[in-house]
Amino acid sequence: MFKDIVDAMREGFGTCLKEIKYLSERVEAVEKKSESVNGTNEGRKSLPEDKGPDVPADASSLKDKAPEPSLEDARYLEKRDDASALCRAKSDRTRKLAASQQSPYTANSMTKVIIPNKKIYPGYNPFAPIDKKKLKELTDWLKTCPHYRTPLDKKPRTSRTWWYQILRTSLEWLEDCHIYAWINVLRKRYDANPQHFRSERMCFLDHLFAQQWRFNFKDFKDSEPDQNGLGRRLLGGGWNYYAGITPSFYQSNKVWRRDIDDIYAPVNYTDTHWIAMWISIPKRHIVVFDSICSSISSEELDVVMEHFLYMVPYLLVECASSDEQRAQYSLESFTNERPTNIPPARAGDCGVYALKYIECHALGKEFSKKYFAKPNGKTMRDKMAVDIFQELPHAHEFENKDNDANLGAYEG
Fold first, then answer.
1. d(CA 302, CA 294)
2. Cα 289 from Cα 277, distance rounded (Å)
3. Which pLDDT value is given to residue 410?
4. Quick check: is 151 in a domain?
5. Which of 41, 47, 119, 296 is most deeply buried (CB count within 10 A of its CB)?
6. d(CA 259, CA 20)
7. Is the residue at 94 inside a domain?
8. What would the mean pLDDT of 375-388 be, rounded to a whole number?
9. What are the backbone dihedrals phi and psi of residue 235, each rounded to the nearest 5 degrees, phi first?
10. Is pLDDT of 254 > 90?
11. Which regions of 281-390 does DSSP assign to beta strands (E)?
12. pLDDT per residue as tens digits for the range 385-403
């Protein structure tokens, strides 16, 4: 009986194969007949009955031969896709908390409640006395430089004595390299001990961030958006800032709004004045800390801040990793203010004060009039020099190349 069943199965299987072969031959014959009438699928033109009104007969061919995207468009799409993929991956890894974990009432919860921005600082004193031993080490090291006794105006800019003499001399204008070095110190400290700061959802950007946005804002504003208000030309590297890829020094890889609420950055105004900027994403608000308010009029400050007020919210919407997240944001501009009750600086010390404003605010410290007194400018400079020497001994040699590939480039 088993043999009869096997024979029946074989016979049925053979019949199926014959049917499949027959159907395949019929399909192939139909395809050949169709090609003989209309041409091949690749070269076939649209038939009259397939066209809409006023559509040329070769419309499908034109569609198939769409122009190749420009180099700028290709770069934009690549960066957008990379940033979006990174953001989606991070979103998938985001831990979903139970209701009991989200509530501050822990009576019935055996799980530790996670409360963001809990106040577990202060971490360190930004105005701690200078370590005299470390200051002597710095001085002795500078004495070994061949240009130690060369007048400041004749020292080569590659000289470490030029670098530190500028930083330590009262009322000397701080160069971009000094500003960048101190921002890097803050990044390093924050990376090592985020609990020392007032939040674990912040980042420190350098002056190139502000510089690029200012230079490219007109093209951004003049570019035509799509029906949703998107598709404008973004500055080169804009996606990288949003995704935490830039800056590369102690790269955070934290996404704005999802992982970052507070952004700190120094701003250079026409190479004559330094100010500090705090961007609060949740509050949709920007605070400018200006040590010499008379250096920038209200009208001039409006021009300086305009690109941040519009481009930050735009970036949040444009770079959102999903339509659901995009719907939570708005293209409406941020608001801004410039407090006038903070300790002022003497002309020339604005860079030092801007950096210390950022440090103190990030630490949750008040701007003490005692420590920010004008005569203390020299002490603050020496303290910063010693800290940089100890924590980033090669800072004077470092060159910021984060945005070299993006200078003059746009995304969009």
1. 14
2. 6
3. 41
4. yes
5. 296
6. 57
7. no
8. 97
9. -65, 150
10. yes
11. 285-289, 335-337
12. 999 999 999 988 877 766 5
Q: For the chain, how many structural domains are there in total?
A: 1
Q: How does the average pLDDT of the chain come out, rounded?
A: 78
> Which amino acid is it at 250?
Y
**CB-CB contact of 381 with 169 (8 Å):** yes
> What residue type is 322 in one-letter code?
S
Query: From CA 78, how far away is CA 86, in angstroms rounded?
Result: 12
17 found inside a domain: no
Residue 359 lies in a domain: yes
Write out the two tokens for 94: 């985001």
Average pLDDT over residues 96-111: 35
- With CA atoms as reference, report the closest residue to 363 among 236, 181, 186: 186
Strand order in the sheet with 262-269: 202-204, 262-269, 273-280, 285-289, 335-337
Contact 249, 187 (CB under 8 A): yes
In 3D space, the residue among 240, 242, 218 whose CA is nearest the CA of residue 307 turns out to be 218
Range of the domain at 381: 132-411
Cα–Cα distance, 272 to 393 (Å, whole number): 28
pTM of the model: 0.72
pLDDT of residue 34: 44
Evaluate if residue 101 carries a pLDDT over 70. no
pLDDT band at 80 (very low <50, low <70, confident <90, very high): low
pLDDT band at 343 (very low <50, low <70, confident <90, very high): very high
Sign, CA dihedral 391-395-398-404, equals: positive
Q: Which two tokens stand for residue 369?
A: 């009039």
Residues 25-41 as b/e (b if ≥16 CB within 10 A, e otherwise) read eeeeeeeeeeeeeeeee
**Pairing between β-strand 234-235 and β-strand 410-411 as defined by DSSP bridges:** antiparallel
Look up the CATH number of the domain holding residue 207.
3.40.395.10
The Cβ-side half-sphere exposure at 132, using a 13 Å CA radius, reads 0
Identify which of 348, 366, 370, 347 has the alpha carbon closest to the alpha carbon of residue 357.
366
Amino acid, res. 139: T
